[in-house]
Amino acid sequence: MLKKIFKLDWVLLSAILLLLTFGLLAIYSLSRGGAIGEFSFYQKQISFVVLGVFVFFLTALSDYTFWKIYAWPLYFLGIFLLILVLLVGHITNGATSWFNLGFLKFQPVELVKVGLIMILALYFSRLKSEFLTWKDIFLSLGYTIIPVILVIMQPDYGSAIILLIIWLGMVFLAGISWQKLLALLFVLVLTAISGWFFFLQGYQKERILTFLDPARDSLGSGYNVIQAIIAVGSGGWRGKGLGNGSQGQLNFIPEQHTDFIFSTIAEESGFLGVSLMLAVFLLLFWRLKKIVLLADTRFGSFLVNGVLVLFFFQFLINVGMNIGLVPVTGLSLPFISYGGSFLLVTMFLIGLAESVYRKSKKHFSDF
After folding, report:
1. What span, in angstroms and rounded, lies between the C-alpha atoms of 8 and 258?
2. Phi, psi angle pair for 23, to nearest 5°
3. How far apart are CA 158 and CA 207, in angstroms?
4. Which residues pair with 106 in a beta bridge?
5. How far apart are CA 270 and CA 166, in angstroms?
6. Which of 268, 272, 262 has the alpha carbon at shortest distance from 246?
């Protein structure tokens, strides 16, 4: 057991622990100041972190190839839960995307992310050709589009976009000619334009219009973005200090412990604190990219690439919407935002990446 633990990438693990600490400090600050109503949010998050660390080590010390047999069951379980949540799910912020179990609110799309990454890794790893054929592309897209449609029906367009991005990232690694890639991007642009007229609901169109001009409805749909930007800018170089952020503590920022936790951290820790957090995220992404190259099997390489794509783009979108660079989509910040199911899934996925590294014959010292 100790031998397995010593073979882990401790730099990657240290980065994860630092990010978890950032999140706990932010939630503690909001709980202490009464910004999120009750101190139990912080206590619950500590429980989630402890359980998440256990899940991480359980997964990291296992053989990642063992999880191949659970790829399809996880995928189909996720599909079943997406259908079930549409029938009996709990409505939050206009979307029927949660199961409310009392002690825990569970979002099944988080499980779907795991299942999709695993079956796509399994599918692409078995292909032998240097470049994907149209058959390969459309078959893998078929696996992806089923959960995407179900998630859109909730509606949760942010998660639907993430699922498509996971697929695109893994298609890119699998090997796709530039002609096919450009054709895919063209189709996606046409689909997005069609979605504006036929799929997007009024409040979602308003989010995009507000993104282009937040001041057009500063007390309505643009309120969240404006307050988040004010919080980020008011942090200055050193921040206002833990528990002293006026925007977060006085509830000017909605969802400050989940979607907009980045703006809370920026306000209280300032440019220096945010720079440190972003540096840790960059370290995380760099280590994951190296593990993709170090993996002994194609399955391991695709698996970690899917994890990297998920974390990187969810991070990018969350930070972007906190500073007004992308529309608000309701995506949480990995390892930082409050939430049980979200945190457990991210810790499981990072555990898989560590397992790929531990089982590889090469290590970072070989570079």
Report:
1. 30
2. -65, -45
3. 12
4. 99
5. 32
6. 268
Reported pTM? 0.89
Give the residue carrying structure tokens 């099997």. 297
From CA 353, how far away is CA 163, in angstroms rounded? 19
pLDDT in tens, 136-188: 999 999 999 999 999 988 878 888 889 999 999 999 888 888 888 888 888 88
Burial class of residue 50 (count of CB atoms within 10 Å of its CB; 0-12, 13-18, 19+)? exposed
| The predicted structure's pLDDT at residue 345 | 93
* Neighbouring-strand partners of residue 100: 105
pLDDT of residue 367: 46
Tokens standing for 81? 């839960």
Whole-angstrom distance, CA of residue 305 vs CA of residue 348: 15
User: Alpha-carbon distance 22 to 329, whole Å?
Assistant: 22
| Other Cβ atoms within 10 Å of 3 Cβ, number | 7
Residue 105: its H or E element? strand 105-106
What is the rounded distance in angstroms from the CA atom of residue 106 to the CA atom of residue 341? 6
State pLDDT tens for residues 257-315. 778 888 888 888 888 989 999 999 999 999 999 999 999 999 999 999 999 999 999 99
Confidence (pLDDT) at 354: 95
The helix/strand/coil state of 235 is coil
Q: Give 78-91 as a DSSP string.
A: HHHHHHHHHHHPEE
Residue ranges of alpha helices (H) inside the chain are: 2-6, 10-32, 40-60, 71-88, 108-125, 134-152, 157-174, 178-198, 202-212, 223-234, 246-249, 261-294, 298-322, 340-359
In angstroms, the CA 165 to CA 309 distance is 7
Evaluated on CA atoms 154, 305, 365, 277, the torsion sign reads negative
CA-to-CA dists, residue 198 to 72, 192, 195, 205, 276, angstroms: 32, 10, 5, 11, 43
CA distances (Å), origin 148, targets 78, 79, 106, 155: 12, 10, 18, 10
Q: What is the largest CA-CA distance in the chain?
A: 59
> Are the C-beta atoms of residues 358 and 59 closer than 8 Å to each other?
no
